[in-house]
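Minutes, project check-in
Item: structure for the 207-residue chain
Input as provided by the requester:
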Amino acid sequence: MLPHLSEYHRPTALTTALRLLARPTPRTVPLAGGTWLVGRRDPSIQAVVDLSGLELAFIKKGARQVRLGAMTTLQTLVEDPLVYELAGGLLAEAAQRSAAPAIRNVATLGGTLVVGEATSEVLLALLVLGAQVAIRSPIRREVGLPAFLADRPAHLPSHALISEVCLPNPSAGTAAALAEVRRTPADRPIVNAAALVVRRGATCRAA
């Protein structure tokens, strides 16, 4: 719990959410799935902006890219047919390995990016898939995931929000795999790795 929480907001417009986050006081933070934020028990947080009313939970395929809304849960990534077919199901498998079902049902893609856990299977899969992070502040801009992870505070100041993650549509013949080492199945990975290849017949065009 957040011991000094005094305000709760659930806006339905992104502009309203950004305006609330931009206030100098009280200290206001976004609330997505809450699996990380609530467990921190940060006494400096006085207000939260619940993002569940912003319609940021979506998976859409366009001509050039797949767009994943920031409020999409990890369990949705596991179950969605489009994600399951993407690059041999790499992202779906990574999401399934990332946590138990009870956590996956509430933890979000955007929250996973903000926390930025070094051993995150989801982040690893997104890196391999060439993800771009869309940020609103309120101007929309995109930044490559490697740059975002290298300096999250610079790319995501307190008045900004991740709105979606964009993945380029994989080429025909794309395949990927994920591997990891754990002490026990219940532990977080000690090390994990992923690879992606693009084949044309028996020839590897890219890796």
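Outcome recorded: Residues 67 and 166 are 5 Å apart (CA to CA).
No further action items on this chain.
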